[in-house]
Amino acid sequence: MEFNSYWYLGLGILSILLLIYVYLKTRSCRGLLLFVTMVGLGYLIEAVIYNFGHSYRYYPKLINHDTIYDSNMGAIASNALALPVVATFIATLRKNWKWIFFFICLFAGIEWAFLKLNIYSHNWWMIGFTSLGLLVYFPLAKVFYQLLSNPLNGFLHSIFLFLIVSPFSGSLHIMPIMFLSNRYYELCWFDNHSQDTTAFSAIFYLGASLSYVWIVKRHWKFKWVKYVLTPLLMFTVNILLQKAGILHSQVWWDPWYYVILSVVLLKLTVNISKHLSIGPRKNA
Questions:
Q1: pTM of the model
Q2: Run of H or E residues at 121
Q3: b/e per residue, 135-148, with b = 16+ CB within 10 A?
């Protein structure tokens, strides 16, 4: 394991320990739902500024065969662990603005240290942008936590359902690609397949997540229809992408993995939808 890896793994382990502390302190599934919601929001922001905007690069040295995918692992450590865990800590334990400013300064310091250690670099991004973003991100977590304290319906239900499902959809889509090289996307948007794949994977998982929410929110006369329609749609999209020369499957199991995954994620969406509709009090 290289020097860079220890810093990212350390940040990840500390984040997981803090999340465990928050859960033991609250014993509430609402805090876990908030955590995943904040991951979903972070993924959405990163899709714009990192995947397409190339705002910064990470160098965790966790994936040696591809520098782009290695950078993605750094992004995951930040946006799937560190930031959403702290946001959950602030919201669930009802921390005030002093705590918010403390963590903003802490993350600014961590970002500065990572820059000095050459395990992270800016393209056009600045530490000030991170601080301004967190000034919105952390208080927003407190608002989301209050909203999750009641049963949700209508548009709010759809928004939270999408934000909660999308991190599972995005992570389970890109992880096999980064580690197992089961597929790549070719669109000639960027200089190499890995950048194309990272960017298009974001579009793919966001579109898939929206479709899961749409299918679950429809009132089907026969419930089994959605479990037939979902894998059929996923299979069709994969075929169309292959015919268009965008999708290149590298292993035999690649298309079947995403078809089966679509059913698993649909079931997850159904279950989360019920929890959001019932509310935390009855869930407990």
A1: 0.94
A2: strand 120-122
A3: eebbebbbebbeeb
